[in-house]
Specification:
There is one protein chain. This protein is mainly alpha-helical and 68 residues long. It has one domain (3-67). It contains 4 helices and no strands.
Length: 68
């Protein structure tokens, strides 16, 4: 997972948590938003996305893939 991908996931997670905290998102949508935010944060911090692996997607540049 590239640095850009990780940054975008963290930003989206923070926005989703902020929407929940502000009371803009409530009910079932709030629960879904918090679950998605949690998944985005965890995958960003562990630098691995299982869905990317299943789909054969890599956001790393070739040089970065060789280092891993």
């Amino acid at each position: 997972m590239s640095t850009t991908d990780r940054s975008i996931r963290i930003i989206i997670a923070v926005v989703l948590i902020g929407l929940y905290a502000a009371g803009i998102v409530t009910g079932t949508m709030a629960i879904v938003s918090l679950v998605v935010a949690s998944i985005f944060l965890v995958t960003s911090f562990i630098n691995f996305c299982p869905l990317y692996r299943l789909l054969g997607i890599s956001t790393l540049k070739k040089e970065e893939r060789l280092k891993s």
